[in-house]
UniProtKB/TrEMBL annotation:
<protein>
    <recommendedName>
        <fullName>Methyltransferase</fullName>
    </recommendedName>
</protein>
<dbReference type="InterPro" id="IPR029063">
    <property type="entry name" value="SAM-dependent_MTases_sf"/>
</dbReference>
<dbReference type="Pfam" id="PF05711">
    <property type="entry name" value="TylF"/>
</dbReference>
<dbReference type="InterPro" id="IPR008884">
    <property type="entry name" value="TylF_MeTrfase"/>
</dbReference>
């Protein structure tokens, strides 16, 4: 938080989208742990207010909307990011996030994915494994639930 780099925080603020087949968990009879609308109580206005009183609202830009709708118009192909953290709990947001940001991260940049290989976020693991299947990067565990890879040249 004390660096001068700009931070973009993107969330629907309407909760999770509908889960997809890739999110279903075989040992739970194909049901999903994460359901549509989960986390919808998150408040854009409250977070914006906190950023303002912390004096961080110039550094952190909140973007409200589903990734698929708001990321393409917000950032051109030339925009680069040194670090991306994906924490969307599901297949669709993780897959789209990886597809959107991968080419926008330079060599040495980092992609963090929360809940990869986790107990309930089946779709996150599927999305990462699918996406990295033909890429040189490999995921490493960086914390209890946090995994990451470093972008290769
Ligand atoms: C576990 S919460 C994490 C929120 C935040 N990263 C945190 O740690 O407090 C998952 C969030 O992902 C958001 N989300 C999931 N898929 C999304 C998508 N496709 N577009 C925008 N937001 C999405 C949900 O709205 C939810 O707030």
């Amino acid at each position: 938080m004390d660096s001068s780099r700009k931070i973009f925080a993107v969330d629907s603020f309407e909760g999770l989208p509908a889960p997809r087949q890739e999110d279903s968990i075989p040992r739970m009879g194909g049901k999903t742990h994460y359901v549509e609308g989960m986390f919808k109580e998150t408040s854009y206005a409250q977070l914006q207010y906190l950023l303002e009183i912390w004096g961080k609202n110039q550094r952190v830009r909140l973007i409200k909307g589903f990734f698929e709708d708001v990321l393409p118009p917000a950032f051109p192909a030339s925009k680069q990011f040194s670090m991306v953290i994906l924490d969307s709990d599901q297949y669709s947001g993780t897959k789209f996030g990886l597809e959107f940001f991968y080419d926008r991260i330079p060599e040495g940049g980092m992609i963090f994915v929360d809940d990869y290989n986790g107990t309930y976020a089946e779709g996150v693991t599927v999305a990462v494994n699918e996406f990295l299947a033909d890429k040189p990067e490999q995921m490493a565990q960086g914390g209890k639930t946090m995994w990451y890879c470093v972008k290769q040249g």
